[in-house]
Design a protein that fits this description.
- It is a single chain.
- An eight-stranded mixed sheet has the order 26-30-24-37-34-35-36-47, with helices on both faces. The protein has a five-stranded mixed sheet with strand order 2-1-5-3-4.
- It is α+β, with helices and mostly antiparallel strands and about 1350 residues long.
- It is globular and about 95 Å long.
- Helix content is about 30%, strand content about 25%.
Length: about 1350
Amino acid sequence: MDGQEASKKIVIFVNGFKVVEDNADPEMTLLYYLRKKLGLTGSKLGCGEGGCGACTVMVSCYDRMTKKIKHYSVNACISLVCSVDGMAITTVEGIGSTAKRIHPVQERIAKAHGSQCGFCTPGIVMSMYTLLRNNPAPSEADIESVFDGNLCRCTGYRPILAGYKTFAKGYGCHGCTDCPSKELNNGIAMNSSTLFDSSKFLPLDVTQEPIFPPELLEENFSPKLLIVKGPLSQWTHDGLTKSYQTTWIRPVSFSQLLEAREAYHNAKIVGGSTEITVEMKVKGCEYPIFISTQCVSELHHIQLRDKGLQIGAACSFTEIAEEMKMLIAKLPAHQTRAFGAVLEMLRWFAGEQIRNVATLGGNIMTASPISDINPILMAVGAELMISSRKGGNRIVRADEKFFVSYRKVAVKPEEVLVSILVPFTVESEYVAAYKVARRREDDIAIVNAGMRVILKENKVFKCDMVFGGRDAVTKRASATETALNGMKWDALLLEKGLENILQDLPINSDVIGGMPEYRQATSMSFFYKFYITVLREIDAKCVPANEMNIADLYVHQLTKASQVFQHVDNSRLLDDPVGQPLAHLSAIKQATGEAVYVDDIPEYKNELYGAVVWSRHASAKVSLVDPGEALSMPGVRAFISAKDLQEPESNAFNIVTVTDEKVFVEDEVTSLGQMIGLVIASDRQTAKRAVKRVKVEYKELPPLLTIQDAIAANSFYEPTRFIKKGDPRDAFAKADHIIEGTVSQGGQEHFYFETYAAIVIPRDGDELEIISSTQNANLTQLTAAKVTGIPSNRIVVKLKRMGGGFGGKETRTVLLTCALALAAKRCGCPVRLMYDRDEDMVSTGTRHPAYTKYKVGCSKKGKLSVVDIDVYINGGATLDLSIAVLERMVSHLANAYSIPNASVRGRACRTNLPSCTAFRGFGAPQGMLVAENIIAKVAETCKLDVNDVRRINLMVDRDTNIYNQLVSPCHLQRCWDELMVKADIEERKKKLDNFNKGSKWKKRSLSIVPTCFGIAFGSSFMNQGGALVHIYSDGNILLTHGGAEMGQGLHTKMIQICARVLGVPTSKVYVSETATNTVANAQPTAASMSTDLYGMAVKDACEQLKGRLTPYMEANLKGSWEDWVKAAYFDRVNLSANGFYKLPNIGYDWTTGEGNLYSYFTCGVACSQVEVDLLTGEFEIARTDILMDVGESINPAIDIGQIEGAFTQGVGLFTLEEHVYLDGNARGQMITTGPGAYKIPGFSDIPKEFNVSLLSGVANQKAVFNSKAIGEPPLFLASSVFFAIREAIKAGRLDHGVDEYFELNSPATVERVRIACSDKILKVAKESVKNNGKSWNILPY
């Protein structure tokens, strides 16, 4: 091009070391290159979509235009390695390590308890590190905003922010309740202990940071034309050889860009590659030519022009935002209103890492109908400069003539977008942009809008109303604009606008994306907000006082928190660490990227990689499976299917009792995400490409997907579960009120950050070693033995740690390990596989959706006397653990309440969803939600305060619950009463009432919810645990137990228990791994039972050892631990002990209703306060207070972390997270297959004030060292947010004269919240939807 010779290699600096790559693959991501080519596994693959931040690294480059070095964070999983040529990459390994010196950023997240499973930790570390490289003294607001592109599923975010706020300017000097040594005086906590001591943290010394590679500053490193060709992929199709190869072209001049564009019309223009990498991964798109705009300076200028701000098409959103902020501060306010609207959209556009590289031009040319930017550009009349080599430049408007159809624009194949002009506004011109999404930060819009009006003498001279998320293209409301022209800006205009918008924006009931009523209502609400916004500017006194705040833009409130726990004398830390808030003992390694997860293990010699051929239909006959094309590809070694099993019966196994699980489906698929076969190849890319070449043909069958489908078809698993207590018939006859209702609730995706991963290694010909990310090593061992025919005593299953589990890795992981075991046995080589996020979400199952019908009897005072309940859960395509989940759900239907008479029937439905499975809470949250809905309806029926009804029905000590088990000790009422005082609830309720009286569309409310969670496995045989403890002759201790570490701090607690019993420092004790050859027959790490079972087993083993050492201790009272151990060793004393524990007095007979189903109960109470925008359904959690009875905490930092993490996961369950399955011709297809569509809570979704207290002075004599299980019980307390939202909706409905009970299904998404309101806008919106008898999606209940 231009006669310039092109370079064919890329040069990058990684952690200061120069890397020259002569054979780069243009499709290869930076993350894959770092992990697989360079062995830097600290950066993690969490999603592959740029949606979780686990892969975050820092990119540094020299900007030759500004002569400055730039540091910015990126998602390595969607950054292509060719795009970082000539740049420096810093990964988590490059800033510190345990071998040399850990960096303060790594230390603080670890010691502030901000790392649990640790899989997300390196990405969070690098986001914070990048911030500090650019701003060594950030504000708290800077710190809280930098993580909008990072997610965490374990911690609840609070401890991460607490640790990193220690870097903030003025930390400890301005009343932040996270500050250590802060004594609170507001009733929340007095004389509280602190979880970490920030005074001992390493200081940040910016002079010690790695320098930018000087070589990259040299002139010979100026960007040059780069042309890189990827590897040639070939296969045979119908006897013909086909091939595919990608080419990366990076022009360095505008003329080269135009030349390349003219030569390659089918090329993909690449800016930040944030869209195309997702398209390649998720949609399977293939692009033979990439043309990069990175080094074309004409596309990177931002210049002030007479008419406005001209922005180069390749400028990143971060660069644009910085420039616009500067201009807003500098120029007259009226002139920059369009800039302000653009900035408002950029606040919510993706996450920091994506904004750093995503370009305005790329966003425009993608022409997404839900683009956040295009509506406002259309509204303000932005001008686009388009250029081609022969045609020169032309100017077009960003309007409906430019956005011609779905993801298509009026640009010729040889043209490129050069720049965008965002115009200045005049004094009488007003502009606003709006967006609503499932989650406020880093989420795609459901509906968005850009609005502009120019007034002359308070009459509309010109207006623009543009909407996204309403059609296949960004949509202008033309008729509305015409109707409003010439009208005065008053109430008549508002009415006219609302009326015309619906005519402009017709919608059908089966509109793509669903939510037709919500989209209509929200579009009207946006116009309403815009009307008030403008009116407030031109004549504020005309705005009704109670509507003034609807025009307020969202203002982020800084978080604050407190943690209160029983103080333990830390002077005894060395000989008794129990009760101390020790940090997770792997946290430092997790923060430095040194902690090893399954896919971090270096490749074995001759290792192969697997890729799964998945079923693509919910119900279908399989008529053909042809792997021929795949097997013709170089590097493909084998195709494994049911035909490879020695015996047909080996393909089937049981999780519990019914043998209905198949490793490979054959003639019929019964859900999405079942394994049809496994392609085995030399590497991951080859395996992935080969999977696309396996031909599978189906004959579709009508699927059963919902609970209602199953009920209609009488499709159930056996047995049915019954509960009978007292005399329900007589109780109903005596009740003052008999109330009936239903409760529907959706499932939940586990979204552990480390997807399923396993490696199977053949050993000595007839042995297998399985390294698996599993909560159930024992089941993994037994199922692999059955499927392969290899005896279980020749199969060893081991794991170091998991990147989260939450129940999702209790049973469903064994399908993967069985398939890999077959492959390893057949090929005679190690075989590895780690699911992509979409594969994991489609195949591994969810929390069970549930539907319940209830009838309840109560007194006039709201006292419950009797319930009659029918429960249905959606079990999916196989039985799995559904009966056990059902049992826990029906046993928790009363939650914390005393109900003397009960009749319950529970059934698990057989459907064509991927098999639903264990999830934190294991059915209890579903049952408890029924209880709280009953309480809410009783309160409204009896005209009583709902919190008063909850209080009078709470169980007291020695009450019996609905399955006739004695509950003792029971501290529920004490928890409730103490929280009422600590959280100042009565006074706050008065303030909320006063606010609501003066606010029509924003409501504030609070709700108090208890929880009472039974602790034990439902099957009595599972309540056992083993441990093995070795004391080596030098005094060091190796501890092994049957539990698996997945972030919950289990190993840390076991070490604390061991150290207490033996009287040694924790530094003497080490846990290496979990393995079936050290502790056999271990139960799954589940049911919150691991500390109870394995803690007692460790205690037993250590007490045996202590007994053996006691004579030597008594004989040498002044001796050291090492002296006593050595003496015992030379006296030939066995310094190894096998500990064991079985839970006493456990076992329940479901037929007779007799026995103890649980060992004890973990209880607590939470109060949450919310503010809800009734016009959009959006909400914010203003404050949450939790008081939890955890007995005598073994480690309060870990226990509080579990409470905060479970609560935040519960916020997701009850308000955000929803699976979407298609209806119609694609019935049963799952849309929510990654973080782009499925939203877990982010940093900004936690309570702005988050106070957690542990109940003091309580001891639980039924567990190790008087502690209590804590992993699952706090999750349901997040329903306090759900019911606070419900109370806010209720307040809004009352304002509109509606006082009848309404059912709010879970989760309370923005759509459900808005639709539950009852106002004129909503009524008209609902009526405007054209019902064609179809819907786009279905719900699984």
